[in-house]
Amino acid sequence: MNGRAGPEGEGALCEFCQGTGSTTRAWAYVSGPDPFHGPAETILRSGQCRHCRGTGVYDSTLDPTLNDYRPRE
Question: N or C: which end of the chain has fewer CB within 10 A?
């Protein structure tokens, strides 16, 4: 944790979205049977940060990317 206050005034600022709550993702698409050769079309999409779920404040209990490492009930 970095200890800096987030937008709500408490918690650690999300390092993945820098506290904005949204991130930009880049996808490359190549048509045809071989996706590793040929010209690629790049698509940029923005969406809610999946680590803080759009709040801008990182909380590990909300992070769905850690679900595989949590104990099963």
Answer: C
